[in-house]
Amino acid sequence: MAFQNSWGTPQGGPAPLPPIPARELRPRRIWYVIGALLGVVLAGAGVVFLVVAVKDTVHSIDDTRTLPNGVTREFSFVRGETREIYVSQSGRGRVDCRIPQMPPGALTQPSTRYRITLDSRSWVRVFEVRPTDSGTYAVLCNSGLPEAEFALGGAPHVAATVGGIFAAVGCFLAAIASVLTICLVTGFRRAGHRRRLAAARAPAPQWGAGPQWGPVPPAGPWGQPPSGHAPEQPPHPQR
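RE: above sequence
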């Protein structure tokens, strides 16, 4: 409860601000939903980029039809389509592969090593095959480690894989940044709008009249009482 003092100012704290309905504030709360949906869309795009990158890597090796160590097996090759030979072994054994029916230079060693892990099994690229003619060719591979196993696959798309991973990370970061930015900006602007509406609808303060000490005659031009209002003289003491 507020009390009125002698000067008319309210005591006991300011009056509470009038409540502002949430539907009157701007921007509307729909922006929170828009921010959440935008974050979901960007995160979903990041998942798609990541899945595509991993899928291309996984499907680059045909591990369903492998080539055991020291065993000859026939494979189909297409002219102009580069194939890769991968090896899976526990150590660094000496590896050698031969395709007798192909001309010299069709089977070469790559300048860089490329490793792919599938189902906790690592495959390392050891040879490249560039066939000059389409057809079926016998492939023989040997390794110094008896448990080694070979498989054919497509050429690794390193740039596409790295690009897909970076695109996925970018989408995830953009999703987080967009959700935080939209929610924070919307929250700050709604809070400011609430304060402005409350200030506009707040009741005007009630100020009372000040205390009365009696009439005061107006002063003269030099601060002296006007004519007819001589200052009172103190009474002289009687002798």
